Amino acid sequence: MDLLANLTWIEVIGWLASILTVASYSVSTMLPLRTLAISSSICFALYSFSNQLWPLLVMELILLPINMYRFWEVLSLRMKLGRASAAQPMDFSLIKTYGKRLRFNQGSVVFKKGDKADNLYFIEAGRIMIEELGIELSDGDIFGEIAFFTHSQSRMASARCVSAAEVYALSEKQLMRLQFEDPSFGMAIMRTITQRLIDPERKYPLAAEGSAPSLPA
């Protein structure tokens, strides 16, 4: 009790900074982590300035803007995902922020059946045919997502450009990053897959006219 009674306000801030730092290592999602890191940096900056701990102060003044930028980045992504979740059909245009832009000529093959699944694709412009399934996709659609959810992770169909196309390729690592930073992105992917399963005729009229519809590989 005597120890607590003798604590100064700056020592309390120092202990609070330590607690916040430890707490930041215990959270599993990015937004709480960045919030705790920012709070910890502010407390440590006050503590180090009051005690003239210049190396610690310099470090925290460097970390603070970095954590604030990352916080804004995660928050901005959550807002985009929130707007995408409310949209019908799903808006996956945020993939352009993380994906690699690719251009294909008419007749070009994006991937072949049996290829290893390396990317999920978002169509910015153009038309893509999933050949074995008779499915044609266009602006705003995604394809190639189902292979990430199979054990073999290999393409079950080929994708060919019906017209010149501009697409954005999202790697598995980037996909995992998006899902980690906001699980609602993963839910949006699953909702799209589910929608394609339960309502193929509306989403894929070409498939409905031929054989039993399925999902893009």
Question: What's the CATH H-level superfamily name of the largest domain?
Answer: Jelly Rolls
Write down the overall geometry: elongated
Q: What's the end-to-end separation, in Å?
A: 66 Å
- pLDDT below 50 for ≥5 consecutive residues: which ranges? 202-215
String of helices and strands: HHHHHEEEEEEEEHHHH
CATH class of the largest domain: Mainly Beta
The average pLDDT value, as a whole number, equals: 82
Number of domains: 2
Helix proportion range = 40-55%
* Count of discrete alpha- or pi-helical segments spanning 4 or more residues: 9
What Rg is obtained from the alpha carbons, in whole angstroms?
Answer: 24 Å
- CATH topology of the largest domain: the name is Jelly Rolls
Summarize the biggest pleated sheet: 4 strands, antiparallel
Work out the strand percent.
15-25%
Topology at a glance:
Blueprint: H1 2-5, H2 9-24, H3 30-50, H4 54-86, H5 95-98, E1 100-104, E2 109-111, E3 119-125, E4 128-130, E5 135-137, E6 142-143, E7 159-161, E8 165-171, H6 172-181, H7 183-198, H8 200-203, H9 205-209
Antiparallel strand pairs: 1-8, 2-7, 3-6, 3-8, 4-5, 4-7
